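Suppose you are handed a protein chain with no further information: no name, no annotation, nothing but its sequence. What can you learn? This example shows the usual starting point.
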Amino acid sequence: MMMMSSDDKTEKPTAYKMGKARSEGSVAKSTDFTAALLMGTVLLMLSVGGDFLLSSLKGLLKTLLSLPYKGVMSQREFYQLLHQASQVAFLLLAPFLGALFFTALGSNLWQVKPMFNMKPIMPNISKLNPAQGIKRIISIKGLIELLKGILKMVIVTSVGYAVVQSQMSNLLLLNYSTPAALYDKLWQLLLLLSGWMFGTYLLIGFADFKYQHWQFEKNLKMTKQEVKDESKNLEGDTKMKGKVRQTGRAMLSKKQLKQIPTADVIITNPTHYAIALRYDPDIAPAPHVVAKGVDHFALKIREVAKLHNIEMVENRPLARALYDKVEYGEMIPPELFVAVAEVLAFVYQKKGKR
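A reasonable first move is to predict its three-dimensional structure. Written in structure tokens, the prediction is:
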């Protein structure tokens, strides 16, 4: 018997297999795309809050330099200094950390959609096996990831080098600049360089995102026989569930037919719907449904009702409302009290009951 090779897997993965892989925690996700968005977030925060960051650092430095020198700092002075430094650090880091957190969260939600699965983080003894670790490192996938890393480094470095080269004439003039102008020029160069590198890395991340999805679907590809087997299994499950539901409906129908002799009235449509109602204050404070059916089962209800001389009243709107709103064994809702009371009054009057 010939072994089945991976080349035989020519069929796209079915929705069932994709869903099963997702339930096991296997999804297509690009860490490069997330890293690019995080880089863009940092760049945006620096461009918007760079002045605030610099002024805060200047204020902290000024505070430190203005402290009187006494040779040895007391414990109270040390805690005061630590408290001031912590406040400045919190003001500086809180917006950055918050922005980075929501960026990473949004990127992952966009890529893999909301999901909760503990399997990927559960301990796996096989991962501690050195032999398995070496196999993962020297596998084809590991070599591809290594080549991707080298290629990314070459591309990003080349773009950075090209940007610096394009600004070289301006950099040579910095020797003749004032300290303030020097700071502005260097800050502008840093933003320009960061912007170009962010754009480059974003393109790399998007390309990696597409590659990860392609690789994910490739790994889940199926043979034609696997597709047929899955279809048969799912069809078998569907048939089994259908038989269970059919058996449950049959049992419920028999149970309802046994309850019809206890009914006070059968409300009909007249041919499509039949609802058997019983009113016994000792059992329930309002009339309740002891049987309900449509078409063939409605005919069965009427046949049993005739055998036991149960009164049948034709009321199309009421029959439809009862069928739609009340399930077997439930009491009728308050909005139908008046209509049902009129029908019961008519039936009781006809039978000479009070």
